[in-house]
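Input record (one chain):
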Amino acid sequence: GINAEYGKQRHQQTISKMSYELYFSQGKQHCENRNFEEAVVSFTDALREEPNDVDLWNWKGYSLRNLGKNVEAIKCYDRALEINPRYDIVWNNKGWAEDDMGLHKEAVISYDHCLRYNPRNVKAWNNKGFSLDDMGLHEEAIYCYERALELEPTNDTSWNNKGAALNKIGHFREAIECLEKTIEINAHCANPWSHKGFALSALGDHKQAMICLNKALEINPDYPNGWTNKGSVLHRVGKYRKALVCYEKTLSICPSHKGALQGKRETLVALGSDAELKRQILEYIARN
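The corresponding structure, as predicted from the sequence alone:
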């Protein structure tokens, strides 16, 4: 009797473990293929077998975040942190989801928790810097990118982010040095080419700026900041019609892009009271 019951329990435990491993494996495979809806289903099935598995809650949160379901993702991360409050990766991922929701202050707190438990988490230093940048705290952001670079000197994301932050505080020559380092590590990313073009234009080298911006748009023709920065350069050299075409291109990709909306307004103001010219330009944009 007792032995039979024990054997039955062992058999059920074995089946449960096999089911858990199968669901977990399927979920990770779905993530790799970017099938996040299916991944959520698999991780939910796995959690039915192992409801206290921290990694499962983290993976389910990751999948939900990639579906834009950040509130649900944060609930998963919070459940994981109830089980293991010192899990740095989960704190970092929670910060990411908060950033996606525009909750930058909350995100910084999550990244700080992550870095308390693992001060060598390069992603968290980068992400914290990005949040601080979004809050307008560019010098504090640069400090974070520098900490990331101390840990990983060839991290192109850190060099790019530092260069972009230096642009924002008007340190254009230092920015260019960082962005050239980024390009040296990874020449096939549009971001550093665009940021470098912005810095060169701010220093008055519009010709080289255009070369960089065209390179950025060659790499990624749907890069909103590339089109906006190109519009800014064209505005500076008085090519208003072409500038407006660039801003309209940005707005066709990202209708709420603040830089493009502002650039478009400034360019239309620069045209002054010449209503006929404005009409011709807007017609030109409509055709292109």
